[in-house]
Each structure stands twice: as structure tokens, then as C-alpha cells.
Design goal:
Blueprint: E1 22-38, E2 41-50, E3 53-60, H1 65-73, E4 80-90, E5 93-99, E6 105-108, H2 127-139, H3 144-154, H4 157-165, H5 179-197, H6 203-212, H7 217-220, E7 221-223, E8 227-229, H8 231-235, H9 238-250, H10 258-270, H11 286-309, E9 319-321, E10 327-329
Helix pairs in contact: 2-5, 5-6, 5-11, 6-10, 6-11, 9-10, 10-11
Length: 333
């Protein structure tokens, strides 16, 4: 049963937890592992966290399986729970341990018993400054139709409010508030430079596509205390969502070139590059090839850097898992 807490603000964050200390504070549920039997009863695991990081939580229950499952079944990903337990260490990693015999517990909280910004990490970069930079690139688009199309999105206050809050991904990289804006601006900057190296590229078309290509992610994720895929995302995916939204906006611009619209749709739908990565088409234009490889470089390099930053001193195996599941060693210097 959900309960209210008089003390809304968090005091203990994951980054400040110390082995051997008691912990009593609120954490968001990131993932769940169902109950299993052990020598003294039943236990289950959660991954919980806040804006500073995530930590494993183990609930050691008694011999009554149904009682342990009842506690587990009340928990959902995205819930904020008040945790009473101890910080321990397992294989060199900190974890929170709850033991039924020691009256440790988990209490699911009502929405008004916590502040959601305590549980989602935020980009370290200045969001307003990044938006201003994005506007500068948009204003450099000479083609009136493309400039008008981009302006429809950037001048929509409701859309931009959601865009600035959206993450780029759920787990791999830029998986925090402002992550989508950060990733988009990086892509735009890299595409602008690519146009200097390859003057054959149609700059206005590439910059427009770079700005717009991931706008579907605004509708792909629901971000509260965790990042979850929406129903649209599961059934359609952000590239198709994005192309549909762009087509809809193009329909509101009288006389918009059908050829230009078709080219833009192709770049958006092919920017993942390969069919197995969710592309509706392989890139078949220079600008589509450029955006795909810029985007891929950005994702893989940012993912590698982020993985390296998240390594702890206790990590003996420096392993980075790429988006396609390949494990690679990380060299730390």
C-alpha cells in the first residue's frame, strides 16, 4: 500500500553511500529480478537509484515465499520507495541489503512524497546555452522551406519544453535529462564540419536533417523517475514517428517541395544505416551517408566515454559494451 512521507527531500544519494552505514531514504526502482530461493528462505533483487547513480538492492526474506512475493509484486519500475537497510559490499561493489529479520523494509511512496528531479540525472552542460547554439545553426539554413520547417519545431514552446527534458537513450549513452538535446547539437556540429570537408554535400538539407532526425525520441520515452519506452516506441520506433511528425509539419507549409520532402524523409528513415539497426532504408544519398556515420560515431564515442567515466576503482575488468552488444576493453590512463 502506498504511503505518504512528510519529508519530501532526499538526504542520502547513491554517490555518498558508505559501506557499513545504515541507509533510510528514497530511491527510484530501475529494474526488478523475481524472487528466488536461498538457504534461509526467499530473496529478490532490485536496481534502485537517484540522479547520482544506481545501486543494487537485495531483500533477504524469510521462509514464507508468498510473503516475499507479495512485497516484490507491489513494486514497479519507476516507483519511488523508502528504503531501510544497510550498505554492504559484494564482489567489490556496494549494494543495499535489507533483511526481514532485522526489520528492514521497503515502502512505496505516493507521487507527492518525493521530488522527481532527485531521481533522474541531468546533463552537466547548460541547457539554455545548447538551445541557443541549436538556434544559431538553424538560422544558418538558407533554404526558406527548410528554415521554415525547422522553425516550426524550435518555436513551439510545448515541443521544446519536452525536447529539452528528453533523454537520448534508456541505458547506452546520453541517458539523462537533456541528453537528446546534447546528442542532437553534437550531431549538428559534426555535420556542419563535414560539409566543410565535403563541399559536395547539400548543407541546408544535411543540417536540417541533423536537427530533426531524432525528434521522434520526444515521443519515444516517458521520463519520470526512470526512462521507459512508450507504446508508440515499442510498436513503431522513433525514426518512423519522426518522419510522420515531419511530414505532418510539411503539410502546413504551402508549396513545400515534394522532392525536398522526399529527400528529407529518406535521410530520417535511413539514419540508423543498417536494417538490423532499425533502418527502413539503407542510406542512398550523400547526405544520408553523412548523417548515418556522424550519428554512429557520436553514439559510439559518447557511449565509450560515458562508460569510462562510470567505472569505479573496484572495477577490475574494464569492459565497455557497445550498442550492438560487442564487449571491448577500456584502457584507463
Amino acid at each position: 500500500m502506498a504511503e505518504r512521507s512528510d519529508n519530501v527531500k532526499k538526504k542520502m544519494y547513491v554517490e555518498g553511500l558508505v559501506e557499513g552505514r545504515e541507509v533510510k531514504d528514497k530511491f527510484a526502482v530501475r529494474s526488478r529480478t523475481p524472487p528466488k530461493e536461498y538457504a534461509r528462505g526467499w530473496y529478490f533483487r532490485l536496481m534502485v537509484g537517484d540522479r547520482t547513480g544506481d545501486i543494487s538492492l537485495v531483500y533477504w526474506g524469510g521462509t514464507e515465499e508468498e510473503a516475499v512475493r507479495s512485497i516484490y509484486d507491489r513494486l514497479k519500475v519507476g516507483d519511488v520507495v523508502e528504503v531501510s537497510g544497510m550498505v554492504s559490499s559484494y564482489k567489490g561493489h556496494l549494494q543495499i541489503t535489507l533483511n526481514e529479520e532485522q526489520f528492514h523494509g521497503l515502502v512505496v511512496l505516493d507521487d507527492d512524497a518525493y521530488e522527481s528531479e532527485d531521481y533522474m540525472p541531468v546533463t552537466s552542460k547548460n541547457i539554455d546555452q545548447m538551445v541557443a547554439e541549436l538556434f544559431t545553426y538553424a538560422e544558418s539554413i538558407v533554404n526558406e522551406e527548410l528554415c521554415q520547417l525547422v522553425s516550426i519545431f524550435l518555436e513551439d514552446e510545448d515541443f521544446m519544453s519536452a525536447f529539452k527534458r528528453a533523454p537520448y537513450s534508456k541505458t547506452f549513452c546520453n541517458n539523462y535529462i537533456g541528453g537528446l538535446l546534447e546528442h542532437t547539437l553534437d550531431d549538428v556540429k559534426m555535420c556542419a564540419y563535414t560539409c566543410e570537408v565535403y563541399p559536395e554535400l547539400e548543407r541546408d538539407l544535411l543540417i536540417t536533417a541533423a536537427i530533426l532526425h531524432d525528434f521522434g525520441k520526444v515521443y519515444e520515452y516517458e521520463t519520470t523517475t526512470s526512462i521507459e519506452l512508450t507504446r508508440e516506441a515499442n510498436l513503431i520506433g522513433h525514426t518512423v514517428i519522426c518522419e510522420r511528425v515531419i511530414r505532418d509539419k510539411i503539410g502546413s507549409i504551402p508549396g513545400f517541395s515534394e522532392e525536398l520532402s522526399l529527400k528529407l524523409s529518406h535521410i530520417i528513415l535511413s539514419h540508423h544505416g543498417d536494417y538490423e539497426w532499425g533502418s527502413a532504408r539503407s542510406p542512398r544519398m550523400e547526405e544520408a551517408v553523412a548523417l548515418h556515420h556522424v550519428d554512429l560515431l557520436n553514439v559510439r564515442l559518447r557511449g565509450f566515454i560515458q562508460a569510462k567515466e562510470e567505472l569505479s576503482e573496484e572495477d577490475s575488468e574494464m569492459i565497455y559494451v557497445s550498442k550492438d552488444g560487442v564487449q571491448r576493453p577500456i584502457f584507463t590512463r
